[in-house]
Amino acid sequence: MKIEYAILVKNKTRLEVLIEKFNTKDQARFYIEHAGGNFTEYEKEHEQFHHCFREVQLQLSRLIKNKIIDREFLPSYIFAENNLIVVVGQDGLVANVAKYSKGLPIIAVNPDAQRYDGILLPCNSKNFMQAVASVLQDNYESKIMRFAEVRLNDGQSLLAVNDLFIGISSHVSARYKIRLGSREEMHSSSGIIVATKTGSTGWLSSIFNMASGLLKAKDVHYPVFREDDLFFVVREPYKSRSTQTGICGGRLKKGEKIFVESMMPSKGLIFSDGIEQDFLQFNSGAIAEIGLSEQTAQLVTGPSRRKNKN
What we know:
Layout: E1 5-10, H1 14-22, H2 25-34, H3 39-61, E2 66-70, E3 83-88, H4 91-98, E4 105-109, H5 128-136, E5 140-152, E6 157-160, E7 163-168, E8 174-180, E9 183-189, E10 192-195, H6 203-215, E11 230-234, E12 249-252, E13 258-262, E14 268-272, E15 275-281, E16 287-303
Parallel strand pairs: 1-2, 1-3, 3-4, 4-16
Antiparallel strand pairs: 5-6, 5-16, 7-10, 7-14, 8-9, 8-13, 10-11, 11-12, 13-16, 14-15
């Protein structure tokens, strides 16, 4: 399929969110500075992002027609087969876009290397056009991103590029029954994290960092991921007469699943990639089946080393 349109995806800057909340930039400044914050940092971040975004759009417009979509409209936007997706923003935005990309090539641009880690942002405003040209010529290399997937017994489902959280939307303990293979337990915990290889350096890593810090001299060995692996961890499991702590974490190989049955009458939820607005309700009677999805996303890394087939 010939690429005919580029879809530019961005998110609002922190400054833009503040202005929406307080109506004007001056009022946003007053709020931040009155609280002891550095408003100049918000301004610099905003200016750097839009400088990069304008540069990306200008270069892109010279080669292909394009349109802009804000992150908030992604769940309702339908990408076409002749689309190329160009993301300008943080790693989390790339993860969010990937879930709706339908396997289309994604070119991810880091607009601010001083502030963003860029684990999922292989391009910048100076070199991204090489990746664009290689996609248009159908002669590119890409990294395949695997999703974690949760399916509920009512037919609803949710994908995650980085991780899934299964728990409750408050600080009280989540109550659920968990099944792994032939083992089954009742749990009271702060929830479950299920991470992909792509998300292994995110939320999951913070749990291992915490465990390693608690044990101090004794190292907690971080799991080595393969492409088809998921890894799950139960956060702060509590042992009591009615709850167990035997199933606290482990690797899920391709084809393996965990099953979680909610015991929460209200406020139970499952969300993906740290976005609480992207969630499924998970209350009493709901059963979640969690494993590796068959769907994938492709993150363009640059021109292919193979000979152009055109």
